[in-house]
């Protein structure tokens, strides 16, 4: 059973009220995405608020971070986590679907991040809140891409983390929507193993895409690669 909380170096994530617990995907995205030009950030499907709080740790004090969450208990958990973290003044949570949020907001964002629901097929979880968190029925990729395109500034960036198959499908859809691939990282569990996840950055202006690989473990369980340690050392207590 997952712990009721997860302790990072500079903040704690209480997660007993959220359907989706702290996981490697969110940590990787929050640590990897380029925040150097971001003054307004949006986290879509924030869950516990993990990625939004990572953005809070990594950015200057004048940056504003909005977080959208459709599921009530996860939203309430994020609100509490935001209130108890060092960057509470930078963080703002909304209890809405992303589709509803797009209809009411007038803000334009320099960076939109999401660890989105991605199950396109298969059985639904017995728990409805977990189903909302995991299945793309509640936030179809098309809605995510079209909404992000409308909310980004001209030089803004959309960044997501997805499993390989869903990621390849998302990349094709992004191109059809009008996005250009900016950066793509293939996340490998061990050397020589196939990638399990993709980290993406998409932009609205034509650019030359950059590709790289990130190996998590050096062939032995819990023996982490220098690249993985360097990426996550500002967050994980174990590094």
Written account of the structure:
- This is tRNA1(Val) (adenine(37)-N6)-methyltransferase.
- It is an enzyme of class 2 (transferase).
- One of its GO terms (molecular function) is tRNA (adenine-N6)-methyltransferase activity.
- Specifically methylates the adenine in position 37 of tRNA(1)(Val) (anticodon cmo5UAC).
- It is found in: Cytoplasm.
- The chain is globular.
- The longest helix has 14 residues, at 164-177.
- It has one domain (10-232): 3-Layer(aba) Sandwich (Rossmann fold), CATH 3.40.50.
- The protein is built from 8 helices and 10 strands.
- It has an 8-stranded mixed beta sheet. A two-stranded antiparallel ribbon has the order 1-2.
- α1 runs parallel beside α2 and α6 crosses α7.
- It has helices at residues 24-32, 50-58, 72-84, 98-104, 128-134, 141-151, 164-177, 226-232; strands at residues 5-7, 12-14, 40-44, 64-68, 91-94, 109-114, 152-163, 180-188, 197-203, 210-215.
- It is an alpha/beta fold.
Write a concise keyword list for the protein shown above.
239 residues, alpha/beta, Rossmann fold, 8 helices
Q: Identify the CATH architecture.
A: 3-Layer(aba) Sandwich
Widest sheet: strand ordering: 5-4-3-6-7-9-8-10
According to DSSP, the number of beta strands is: 10
Task: Write the CATH homologous superfamily.
Answer: Vaccinia Virus protein VP39
H/E element sequence = EEHEHEHEHEHHEHEEEH
Radius of gyration: 17 Å
Catalogue the unreliable spans: 127-135
Oligomer: single chain
Number of helical regions: 8
Q: Fraction of residues in helices?
A: 25-40%
Provide the CATH topology: Rossmann fold
Shape: globular
Provide the CATH top-level class: Alpha Beta
**Distance N to C terminus:** 24 Å
> For the report, how would you describe the main beta sheet?
8 strands, mixed
């Amino acid at each position: 059973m997952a712990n009721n909380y997860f302790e990072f170096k500079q903040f704690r994530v209480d997660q007993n009220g959220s359907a989706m617990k702290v996981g490697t995907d969110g940590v990787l995205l929050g640590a990897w995405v380029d925040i150097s030009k971001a003054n307004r950030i949006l986290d879509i499907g924030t869950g516990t608020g993990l990625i939004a709080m990572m953005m809070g740790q990594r950015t200057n004090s004048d940056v504003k971070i909005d977080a959208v969450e459709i599921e009530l208990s996860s939203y309430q958990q994020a609100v509490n986590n935001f209130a108890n973290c060092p960057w509470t003044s930078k963080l703002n949570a909304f209890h809405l679907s992303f589709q509803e949020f797009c209809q009411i907001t007038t803000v334009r964002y320099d960076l939109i991040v999401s660890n989105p629901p991605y199950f396109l097929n298969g059985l639904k979880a017995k728990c409805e809140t977990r189903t909302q968190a995991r299945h793309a029925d509640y936030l179809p990729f098309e809605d995510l891409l079209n909404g992000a395109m409308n909310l980004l500034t001209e030089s803004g960036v959309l960044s997501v983390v997805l499993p390989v198959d869903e990621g390849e499908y998302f990349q094709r859809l992004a191109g059809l929507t009008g996005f250009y691939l900016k950066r793509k990282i293939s996340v490998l569990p061990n050397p020589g193993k196939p990638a399990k996840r993709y980290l993406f950055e998409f932009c609205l202006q034509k650019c030359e895409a950059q590709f790289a690989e990130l190996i998590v473990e050096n062939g032995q369980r819990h023996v982490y690669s220098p690249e993985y340690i360097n990426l996550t050392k500002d967050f994980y207590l174990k590094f």
